[in-house]
Design brief:
Elements lengths: L1 E2 L4 E2 L6 E6 L4 E4 L6 E7 L4 E4 L9 E4 L4 E4 L15 E6 L6 E2 L6 E2 L3 E6 L3 E5 L5 E4 L3 E11 L6 E4 L3 E11 L9 E4 L3 E3 L5
Amino acid sequence: PDVTNDPIINTASTTSLNVTIQNGGLLTNSSTGGITFTSFTIENGGKYIHNKVAALPGTTRSFSANSTVEFQKHTATTCPASASYGNLIINVSNFTQNNGCAGNLSSIAGNLEVKNTSGYQLRLVSTQNIAHTIGGNLTISGGTLVLSSDSGSPSVAVSGDVIVSSGTLDLSNKSSGAGSPTLNIGGNFSQTGGTF
């Protein structure tokens, strides 16, 4: 279906869908069943809220630069799936461990905001040396984002501002044998709270 209003998927049934969220559309996925998205498109101005204890749907995914994906729930022991995101919001309430992304979040055309990681760490890499790009701002308003948790030396290029108002932004949290992550900021750095 093409989504232009604000439906909520909340079913235990099993079905496969081709989904397009259009400009101004909002789709919340709270299903408990085996719903799968064969193709998943979010156009500019569309927003998808993932409130399902499962991975991001879509055999094929196409997210426009000004689209938004917000994770409110997820598979409890894995990082969100690899995709070219527009705007990405991490607001997950059900993580049960620190989760390594291994480069899954390396392509974000718009803003990345970390709001909640359930008291655990979201780690961009562990041992990988992967370039990450964030086309807008990086905002930490809760939760913990770690650039490297082991020997990895990722480069993270933020075209806009880095804003820390709460939570933690940690470049590296390995005490011995740590990598050397780099954070390149095109705009300004602002810290009004939290930890950096």
